[in-house]
Structure formats: C-alpha cells, structure tokens
C-alpha cells in the first residue's frame, strides 16, 4: 500500500479506512520517512493497526540517521514492543540526530502495517 499513508496526519487505526500503509510478507520489512534535513529527534510515536493483527508489529526497531540506507543508521534503543491493547506507543530517542527515520521489523516473512508515524524534534 501507499507509504505516505503513515504520515498523512490521520491516526485512524482501522486499515480499511485507508489510513494505514502495509507491506505484505517480507523479510525485514521496513518503512522510512525523509525529513528533508537533519533534526535532533526527541521521540517517535507509532500508531498500530487495531482492527486485525496488532501483535504483528512486535518486535520492531526504529533507525535514525543521515544515511538513505536506513538500516545503516543507528537504532533508537533495541527491540521495541507495543502493548497490543493500546493504539500507539511513544519511543524516546533523545540525543539522536538524523534526516531519515525508519521503522523495521526484524525477521523473515513479516507484515508491516503502520497507521501513523509522528516524529518530534527537540
């Protein structure tokens, strides 16, 4: 599905409302946004799909840096896990700087669905 749906300002967590991006069954699926220039990132908020399979997001990684090859950028923390009863999670990334912010699911044959990704700078 369209990657831009994860940054359209719509935090609706129902995939069928055309608000979520989706990658189907890939190894290490990833999504990223180019912020246009480097920023000091305070936190990243991720809105998960709630209408079906919210557990599929776990575990996930966040990469922040200046390489367009997002997996070469440092991770914000390690593996993150969202409480599947909650629609969103806020991850503190204080002190990290970068132009690219990526979300990656480590592992084989995983589906990545993101309903919104919000990036906050200092």
From TrEMBL:
One of its GO terms (molecular function) is fucose binding. GO terms for biological process: regulation of cellular defense response; regulation of complement activation, lectin pathway. Residues 2-122 form the Fucolectin tachylectin-4 pentraxin-1 domain. It comes from the Eukaryota. Keywords: Calcium, Disulfide bond, Lectin, Metal-binding. Homotrimer. InterPro entries: BG_Antigen-Binding_Lectin, FTP1, Galactose-bd-like_sf. Belongs to the fucolectin family. Pfam families: F5_F8_type_C_2 (PF22633). This is Fucolectin-1-like. Acts as a defensive agent. Recognizes blood group fucosylated oligosaccharides including A, B, H and Lewis B-type antigens. Does not recognize Lewis A antigen and has low affinity for monovalent haptens.
């Amino acid at each position: 599905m369209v990657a831009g749906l994860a940054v359209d300002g719509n935090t609706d967590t129902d995939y069928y409302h055309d608000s979520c991006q989706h990658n189907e069954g890939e190894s290490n699926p990833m999504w990223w946004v180019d912020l246009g220039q480097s920023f000091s990132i305070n936190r990243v908020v991720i809105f998960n799909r709630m209408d079906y399979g919210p557990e599929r997001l776990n575990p996930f990684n966040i990469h922040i840096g200046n390489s367009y090859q997002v997996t070469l950028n440092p991770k914000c923390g390690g593996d993150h896990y969202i409480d599947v009863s909650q629609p969103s999670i806020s991850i503190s990334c204080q002190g990290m700087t970068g132009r690219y912010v990526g979300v990656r699911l480590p592992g084989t044959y995983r589906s990545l669905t993101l309903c919104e990704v919000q990036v906050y700078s200092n």
